[in-house]
Amino acid sequence: MKLCRRAPQPGPRFYKRVKFTPEQVRQDPSLAWCKARIFHAGVAQINLLLNRAAPWLDIDSYLPYEGKVVIKNKKAKDVSAWIPLWVNREALQCRVGGRRVPRVWVGNYLLVDNLSPRDQITLTFPVPQQTVKLNLPSPHHQWIWSFDQ
Questions:
Q1: Residue 84 and residue 29: Cα distance in Å, rounded?
Q2: N or C: which end of the chain has fewer CB within 10 A?
Q3: Burial of 76 by CB count in 10 Å (0-12 exposed, 13-18 middle, 19+ buried)?
Q4: CA neighbor of 69 nearest in space, from 113, 122, 110
Q5: Predicted confidence (pLDDT) per residue in 91-136, tens digit
């Protein structure tokens, strides 16, 4: 009995300057892009909080500079968004069209339901920062690492 199958070997995906257009990247079959957002039966599932445009919603991510993600609905009735583990759930705020909505969690997914086309979901949360001091041969340096804790 075979438990897994051999993955196809198309070779590495390197984007040359002439190939690196938004449309060609959108059509790239890389698993991360294919699974970044899913839409089925009126429910949109967002698996990565990355900038992305799709026929059912647009995602505008301000990460890692600011803890803000704006989801512009086009067709979805419900949206579930995966929230990273480092985000403080108590500090996360969810607004639809400016009005605050209760947070409903299923695992690490935040659910927002009863949406209309053109609704805008805004998620805001603090981005943790950590200060790391490194002793280098030259004068003492201080680096600030964001998005990590």
A1: 24
A2: N
A3: buried
A4: 122
A5: 999 999 989 999 999 999 999 999 999 999 999 999 987 766 655 6
